[in-house]
Amino acid sequence: MGFLFTFFLLPLFNLAQTSTQTPVGGGDTGQYEQTFRFQNYIDAFVENREQFGRSFLYATIATVLALAIAYPLAYAIAFKGGKYKNFMLVLVVAPFFTSFLLRTIAWKQILGEEGFVVPTLRTFGIISESTTLTSSAFAVVAGMTYNFLPFMTLPLYASIDRIDPRTLEASGDLYANGFTTFRRVTLPLSMPGVVAGTLLTFIPAAGDYVNAAILGSPQTKMLGNVIESRYFKIVDYPTAAALSFTLMAAILILVTVYVRKAGTEELV
C-alpha cells in the first residue's frame, strides 16, 4: 500500500491537479495556477480527437496481428517444442535484451529503401517504384506489432502449456476434427492467456509514441506524441495532463468492457 500510494496515487493526484490549471494571468507564460478549469478536458479532446482515434485504431490492429502471430507460435512451443521449449522461449524474449529504441530504428532500416522488403515487393510488382513503406501507418503498426509481440506470446504460452493433452485426445475420441477440437477445447481453455496477452499488448500500444515518432510522419501521430510534445516542447502541462487522464480513463473503460465480454473477470 505504501508503494502504491507513493508511486501511483500521488502521481495521479498531481496529474489531476495539473489538468485543471490555467496560465498565470491568462497569457502564455509557462507558469500555471489552479483554477479548476474542467473545460481543459473537453478542449483537449476536441483538439486531438483524430490522434485519439488513430491511437486506438493502431493499437487494435497491432494487437490483432500480434495475436494472429503469437497464438500459433505459443501453441507450437507448448505442444511441439519438446526438449527445445526453453530455448524457443529464450528466442521469444531475446529482443528484450536490445533497447526498445534500437529495435524500432532497425525497423526503419528494414522497411527503408536500403532494406530488403521494399526491393522485393517492387520486384514482384506488389508496390510501385514510387511507393515507400517508411513514414506510413503500415510502418508504425508493423513496429508496434513486433515490439509488443513477446507480451502476447508469453501469456499465451503459459496458458496453453497448462492444457492437459488428454483433453485433446478425448475430443478426438468423440469424433471431433482438428478445427472443432481447437474451437471447443483449446481456445476456451487458453482464453485466460488470450485476455492477458491482448491487455498487455493493447494498453502500452495505445499510449506508445516511439514507433510513431521514428517510423511515422506528422499524419500518423498518436496521442502519446501529442502528450510528449505538450510536456517537453510546448510546455502546456494542463493540456498534457488532461490528455493523459482522458487516455487512461478510455483505456480503463475499454478494458473493463472487454474483460466482462470475455467472461474471464475471475481469471485476470
Structural summary, described in words:
- The structure is a single chain.
- By secondary structure, the chain is mainly α.
- The protein has helices at residues 2-19, 39-47, 49-80, 85-93, 100-110, 117-123, 137-161, 165-173, 178-189, 191-206, 210-215, 223-232, 237-262, and strands at 21-23, 32-34.
- A hairpin with an 8-residue loop joins strand 1 (21-23) and strand 2.
- Helix 12 packs antiparallel against helix 13.
- The longest helix is centred in the first third of the chain and has 32 residues, at 49-80.
- The protein is globular.
Number of strands: 2
What structural category characterises the helix and strand content? mainly alpha
* Binned strand content: under 5%
Largest sheet: 2 strands, antiparallel
Which sequence of SSEs, written as H and E, runs from N to C? Answer: HEEHHHHHHHHHHHH
Overall pLDDT metric: 90
Going across the biggest sheet, name each strand in turn.
Answer: 1-2
The number of helices is: 13
Shape summary: globular
Poorly predicted segments: none
Measured distance between first and last alpha carbons: 20 Å
Portion in helices: over 70%
Instruction: Please compute the radius of gyration using only Cα atoms.
Output: 22 Å
